[in-house]
């Protein structure tokens, strides 16, 4: 398939490489020349502009920093793509922006799905991302073989914007549960409990969750968690701040009483502003320790 890939950064770069390796004809564009060169080295055809990249595309993937980027790029490229092109936006963006992007694409005679991912750079490289998809059944079906090259768990979540909705809701659970797990470890330490003892109990009891058993915020109990590697991400606290801010905006816009989600957004925002953004998001345990004077 002729695929244009816009946004060849930490995620988009390896995703485009996997599409190339699977035999697709990939044309890549990123304003960053190093990102373009890396994709070209892996077999993609570099384009000089976003408009040039989509000129013959049957499918266009965008993997961009924000909703503003997606909407601006769509304004540029929608008139330049062949009629009926399938636009797949895998960036994490606001639900309202995803729905606006969908409207723009359809008004220009194209098809569109939002298909944000989880699984991070490791999943992007390995081709094991989870895709949460919003759009029509037929557009989901058309994109499925392409998404399956880049990921494993592909879930159709409903109409336009519902992929982003699922992503924001999932990450609101993740952010709040990581803080809850971290608070429990810091409290346990103060009460004289070892981290291993709390882990051994909670990981087999009702406190069990991914933040505890896979991405455990203290070193020791889960040897593969970023806590054992100086909190190198993994999933950075800056990205958790971004996703929780999007979730908090949606909470407020919809009048939802989500006290924990809003508190989690505030806590990660403060941690990011204090310089913690490049750490794995589980390093929030250190922030809680320091705020507790421990
Ligand atoms: P990144 O900053 O590494 O990559 C974004 C790329 O987009 C950059 O290379 C930038 O130069 C490029 N870009 C900007 N404007 C462009 C344009 N007009 N045309 C083409 N390219 C353009 O970010 P990333 O970590 O790859 O994340 C991309 C998206 O994926 C974000 O929305 C992020 O929230 C989401 N995401 C990231 C992760 C992760 O672990 N990094 C995980 C899940 C989701």
UniProtKB/TrEMBL annotation:
Q: Which Gene3D superfamilies match?
A: N-(1-d-carboxylethyl)-l-norvaline Dehydrogenase, domain 2, NAD(P)-binding Rossmann-like Domain
| Record flagged with keyword NAD | yes
The record's annotation in NCBIfam families points to: HIBADH
Organism expressing this protein natively: Rhodococcus rhodnii LMG 5362
What is the name listed in the Swiss-Prot or TrEMBL entry for this protein?
Answer: 3-hydroxyisobutyrate dehydrogenase
In the record, the note on similarity to other proteins reads:
Belongs to the HIBADH-related family.
* Domain 3-hydroxyisobutyrate dehydrogenase-like NAD-binding: residue ranges: 161-286
Pathway field of the UniProt record reads:
Amino-acid degradation; L-valine degradation
Entries under PANTHER family matching the protein: 3-HYDROXYISOBUTYRATE DEHYDROGENASE, MITOCHONDRIAL (PTHR22981:SF7), 3-HYDROXYISOBUTYRATE DEHYDROGENASE-RELATED (PTHR22981)
Active-site residues (renumbered): 167
* UniProtKB keywords: Branched-chain amino acid catabolism, NAD, Oxidoreductase
Alphabetical list of InterPro entries matching this protein: 3-OH-isobutyrate_DH-rel_CS (IPR002204), 6-PGluconate_DH-like_C_sf (IPR008927), 6PGD_dom2 (IPR013328), 6PGDH_NADP-bd (IPR006115), HIBADH (IPR011548), HIBADH-like_NADP-bd (IPR029154), HIBADH-related (IPR015815), NAD(P)-bd_dom_sf (IPR036291)
Name the Enzyme Commission number(s) assigned to this protein. 1.1.1.31
Q: Which SUPFAM superfamilies match?
A: 6-phosphogluconate dehydrogenase C-terminal domain-like (SSF48179), NAD(P)-binding Rossmann-fold domains (SSF51735)
Which reactions does this protein catalyse? Answer: 3-hydroxy-2-methylpropanoate + NAD(+) = 2-methyl-3-oxopropanoate + NADH + H(+)
For whether the record's keyword set contains Plastid, the answer is no
Named from the GO MF annotations, one term is: NAD binding
* Principal EC category: oxidoreductase
Per the database record, which ranges form the 6-phosphogluconate dehydrogenase NADP-binding domain? 2-158
One GO term of the biological process aspect: L-valine catabolic process
